[in-house]
Amino acid sequence: MPTVVIAGAGLVGALNACFFAKKGWNVQIYEFRRDIRTMKHVQGRSINLALSQRGKSALEAVGLKDYIVDQGVAIRQPYGQPGEHIVSINRRHLNEVMITQAEKCENVKFFFEHKVKSVDYENKKLIVQNISQPSRIPTFGQKQTHQDHQEFEIEADLIIACDGAYSAVRRSLMTLPRFNFSQEYIEHGYVELNILAKNDEFALEENVFHLWPRGHFTLIALANKDKTFTVTIFAPFDEFEKHMATPQDVLQFFQENFPDAYELLGEQHISETFKRVKPQPLVSVKCSPHAFFDNLVLMGDAAHAMVPFYGQGMNCGFEDCLVFSEILDKIGDIGESIREYSRVRVKDAHTINDLAMYNYEELKDLVNHSSYKLRKKFDLFLNSIFPKSWIPLYSMVTFSRIPYSEVVERRKSQDKIILSILHEGFTQLYSTIQKMADKLNMSLDDIIRLKKKTEVKRENGGGNRGGNRKQFPIKKGAGARKIIVGGRG
Ligand code: FAD
């Protein structure tokens, strides 16, 4: 059986291990961290994640879907169709379950506390360093020996880099000709907090996505199985620095902007959290190709880290594993399979990366716009009439396995149809007015002049509608909206 070496035992690396374990390959996974199953606290990104269709399909292929879904909380959305929901799951638990599942196969071996340093692409090998602590405690001033931190090379039929957004493997490929890479940090960072259970019950409604949009900063909350909520504040680093720099500032900020959440989070928890953790940056990474030589492929965040505003980072990474497994089963040859994988997957990865960035803009403020809500309702209306052919963008991304690039093509066709409906509407309106004008023995210009005169009268207080219309600012401190705007990630 061939050997696959996987860099990183995070979400995507661990799932890949399950896929190859199932195929009966020899699997070696090198992970920088200690075994998270033995750790008290695991440092890292978001505590919980929104699992949707693409992720579920990949978990189903390795027999884990029902178990994982059962461990989560179903989150429904008002714009959704019956039966459509995402599942809020605990990152650590999910990661642990996949490691344990993969390890059940005796041909799978995890090497924790092993850092992948680089890839030696001339010899098609991975360079790994053992960073485990030596069993003896070095006495003061004593250097650790080379043997404690040995570097060694690994050869494999296939190498899969799943070592995350700051991938060491990807970094060592940067000097290759025709390797495209781009990276963007957005101006927002995030801090995670917790709402505890209240009298052993959820303190907020559990099956909805809670969102407090406040223009350029936003608070969201997602329920956990243990009746707590993970609450995340997304704000520009400027805002953190100016308004959340001291414990008093943070409390005032939360009290003024999110009074209901402030009560549930509690003063002490907010100040302790902000003392303990710094706002974390959010990065978006695109690269191409995703496959190199005859045996190396990038997957998950190593290939396409994205901002977490479409709830798709992990889902897309999980779908990577499924897409690659399907291609490998079909083609057989490793070199051809990785090239085909890169051919189909790069454009999809770029597309969801862009969609996530677009949703970042939406989440900031667009949800408050009536045109945004109108479009959502219009989409759902058309979907109820043509359920197979008119699927809203969010549903195609979240509740289908339509390739991301096709999702965007379909959306463009929908936009064209809407524009032509609007055009048709205007044409009809125009001909109705023309008929009216004919009946009144007036020209269209006469009608337009008459309309303008009426408007001037109203603006001068002559009318009782329109003249006093005001723009209402977002009410500070208003409660959360129970909506989903693409979830997270
Ligand atoms: P990672 O999870 O980062 O795992 C990489 C692994 O590689 C880690 O275990 C790391 O220790 C290891 N590693 C790193 N470097 C080395 C090295 N040199 N040698 C060996 N091992 C190494 N996605 C969703 O689908 N839904 C969501 O709701 C969602 N919410 C999110 C919220 C936030 C705030 C953020 C930041 C992200 C969110 N995401 C979400 C995205 C999701 O977290 C990532 O897409 C996902 O974790 C990618 O998995 P990965 O295995 O590729 O990378």
UniProtKB/TrEMBL annotation:
<comment type="pathway">
    <text>Cofactor biosynthesis; NAD(+) biosynthesis; quinolinate from L-kynurenine: step 1/3.</text>
</comment>
<keyword id="KW-0662">Pyridine nucleotide biosynthesis</keyword>
<dbReference type="GO" id="GO:0006569">
    <property type="term" value="P:L-tryptophan catabolic process"/>
</dbReference>
<keyword id="KW-0274">FAD</keyword>
<dbReference type="GO" id="GO:0019805">
    <property type="term" value="P:quinolinate biosynthetic process"/>
</dbReference>
<keyword id="KW-0285">Flavoprotein</keyword>
<dbReference type="GO" id="GO:0005741">
    <property type="term" value="C:mitochondrial outer membrane"/>
</dbReference>
<dbReference type="GO" id="GO:0070189">
    <property type="term" value="P:kynurenine metabolic process"/>
</dbReference>
<dbReference type="GO" id="GO:0004502">
    <property type="term" value="F:kynurenine 3-monooxygenase activity"/>
</dbReference>
<keyword id="KW-0503">Monooxygenase</keyword>
<feature type="domain" description="FAD-binding">
    <location>
        <begin position="3"/>
        <end position="322"/>
    </location>
</feature>
<keyword id="KW-0472">Membrane</keyword>
<dbReference type="GO" id="GO:0034354">
    <property type="term" value="P:'de novo' NAD+ biosynthetic process from L-tryptophan"/>
</dbReference>
<dbReference type="GO" id="GO:0071949">
    <property type="term" value="F:FAD binding"/>
</dbReference>
<dbReference type="GO" id="GO:0043420">
    <property type="term" value="P:anthranilate metabolic process"/>
</dbReference>
<comment type="similarity">
    <text>Belongs to the aromatic-ring hydroxylase family. KMO subfamily.</text>
</comment>
<keyword id="KW-0496">Mitochondrion</keyword>
<protein>
    <recommendedName>
        <fullName>Kynurenine 3-monooxygenase</fullName>
        <ecNumber>1.14.13.9</ecNumber>
    </recommendedName>
</protein>
<keyword id="KW-0521">NADP</keyword>
<keyword id="KW-0560">Oxidoreductase</keyword>
<comment type="function">
    <text>Catalyzes the hydroxylation of L-kynurenine (L-Kyn) to form 3-hydroxy-L-kynurenine (L-3OHKyn). Required for synthesis of quinolinic acid.</text>
</comment>
